[in-house]
Each structure stands twice: as structure tokens, then as C-alpha cells.
Amino acid sequence: MKKILIAEDEEVLRMLIMDTLEDDGYDIHEASDGEEAELLIGSEEFDLILLDYMMPAKTGLEVIGTIRNGMLNRDTKIMMLTAKSQSSDEQTILKAGADYFLSKPFSPMALAERVEEILSENE
Known about the structure:
CheY-like_superfamily, Rossmann fold
């Protein structure tokens, strides 16, 4: 079973994402801020991290920096979820080390399809 971490500070959105992805049989874990996300990433292996850009404690970019600088699992796929949708924002996020980018608001079904595509890439 594929493991996904949802790091999102907005509880309603986090629950919506969890409900959507649990229906597809993924093992879902959650974090409400960047520090909690780093703790989970440091103690468990995830196949995919859905990471909010703007979170308390540590931003999504800071968490990506920790992961990509080798302190945590470097091979984990990361999708940044953000309301920042200009092309310069996307370039900043991808340059920081995110593998994928999804602008808010998004359709839960579109997210589920994208997650399935990402997780099937390495099979």
C-alpha cells in the first residue's frame, strides 16, 4: 500500500484530501504544519508528500529544503499545493525541489487522478 503524507494547515482542506485519497486505498498520514511534517518524514518512509506552501512553523519551501539537503528521504516525490499560481511562483517551487505543482483551488478528483499518475510512474 502506497503511503502519502498530507501536510496542510487548513483542516477542512486536509480532511477533504484525506477523504478523497482514502477511497483509493492509500495509507494516509497528516501534518498540520511544517515542523510536524518534518518529524513524520524523519520517522517514516512516504511514497508521496502533498505539501502546502504556506504553513505555520515551517513553510513548504523550508520542508523541501530539509528533504532535498539530505536530512530526510531525498527520493520521496513532493507535490506542492499552493494558491500562488504565477509562473514565477511555480519556477521557485520546482527549483526548490518539488517534483510537482498544483494550484489551489483544485478539484479533489483532479488531485486523485494526479496522485495516481505520480504513484504509478515508478511501478
